[in-house]
Amino acid sequence: MDPLSDPGFGTYQNEIYLHGLEGRHPPFTTDLTALEASARERLAPEPYWYVAGSAGSGATDRANREAFDRYRLVPRMLTGATERDLRTTVLGQELPAPVLLAPVGVQSIVHPDGELATARAAAGTGLTTVLSTASSHTLEEVAEANGDGSRWFQLYWPNDDDVCASILRRARGAGYRTLVVTLDTWTLAWRPHDLDHAYLPFIRGVGTAIAFSDPAFRAGLAAPPEEDLTSAVLRWVPMFTGTDRTWDRLPFLREHWDGPIVLKGVQHPDDARRAVDAGMDGVVVSNHGGRQVDGAVASLDALPRIAEAVGDRTEILFDSGVRTGADVLKALALGAKAVLLGRPYVYGLAHGGEDGVRHVLRGLLADLTLTLGLTGHSSPAELSPDDLWHGR
Fold it and tell me: Closest Cα to residue 193, out of 88, 367, 45?
């Protein structure tokens, strides 16, 4: 049977209940909104806050969740939604569900297998994983772990063109289909929790595996990183942080990437229009989960204006604050083609490696298909703003 047409996402609920007859319970909570608190009990303060922390006062992170709370689903009855099909097509690629795994760096700080475990779990559930430039493992290692799964690559744009071109060439060669260029993190925001712990993984050589394994990067070192970590870190930091790009640099990416290119971090309709005019294939409406600009607009509040501006001209994806199946439906109703899930699967990784990520993904997908049906819909394509009530 075609796994895309019948992935059985909703069966995870039945599986859990049947296991209960044998006295077996889920490995950890099925409430994805409670995972953060649970992960805090398992992780040391430094890695926990690196994942959970936000810029400044945390106002943007809170705004993301408050925006989801303001929008309410309006269920419809007697619609014959017994059978559901979550499939969608994004950038010409058929996905089994409108959910991808967001790029999250330095995953080894919460579990030794890090991105390898995430890549395996994504492949096992049929979802696309988006690998961060700040991965704890190399492009090739993660591709091997992902096997025949679907993978995209997220670029933190280095200011050395030779290194950038080399990394992009490696990503295409390793089977990464789409390039996601993060625009909002060209330098780190003021993050009090990380600062209070004086904790930044990169200066310890964690989250630098892709650069440190790159021949163009290594060519600029007097000694390889394995022999002189300090010099490699001192080369890495100014290369990957501190330089804001301009719109006229986008053709460089197109020159070195022959697949779809998506710009991540878009919050203003005019930036979305410029992305389309520049020939980009899509945008991700995102505020980096509240980690970059304190007091910024919630991504969900930014989404409708961007959908109105460019929704008929390009692919719109969404992240920042997604925790439940209902959250996914709200973002889709407001114009997103798919969402990127971030922190929850990382908390799953902290709880149980590959199995932990799989538990989170299966739970979200089960919640998604059940909530889709219970609101009276058989397909994500049926959703529109009319399915929401907005409590202003």
Answer: 45
Query: How distant is the alpha carbon of residue 95 from its chain centre?
Result: 15
What pairs with residue 110 in β-bridges?
Answer: none
pTM: 0.97
| All residues at 6 or more sequence positions from 55 whose CB lies less than 8 Å from its CB, including other chains | 189, 190, 191, 290, 291, 292, 293, 294
* Number of Cβ atoms within 10 Å of the Cβ of 230: 10
CB count within 10 Å of CB 302 equals 23
b vs e for 5-34, b when ≥16 Cβ sit within 10 Å of the residue's Cβ?
A: eebebbebbeebeeeeeeeeeeebbbebee
Which tens digit of pLDDT belongs to each residue from 335-352? 999 999 999 999 999 999
Q: Dump strand ranges (E) for the chain.
A: 71-73, 88-90, 93-95, 99-101, 128-131, 151-155, 179-182, 261-266, 282-285, 315-318, 338-341, 388-390
H/E element holding 52?
helix 45-52
Q: Report DSSP state, residue 381.
A: G
Using one digit for the tens of pLDDT, what is the confidence trace for 262-304? 999 999 999 999 999 999 999 999 999 999 999 999 999 999 9
CA angle 290-292-293, nearest 5°?
Answer: 80
Among residues 288, 351, 359, 377, the one annotated as catalytic is 288
Cα four-point dihedral sign 218, 220, 223, 227: negative
CB 317 within 8 A of CB 103: no
197 catalytically annotated: no
C-alpha 253/C-alpha 279 separation (Å) is 11
Two structure tokens written together for 135: 């991965």
Amino acid at 347: Y
CA dist list (Å): 105 to 171, 254, 290? 16, 24, 15
Q: What residues form DSSP beta bridges with 264? A: 182, 284
Q: Give the C-alpha separation, 182 to 186, whole Å.
A: 8
CA 151 to chain centre: 12
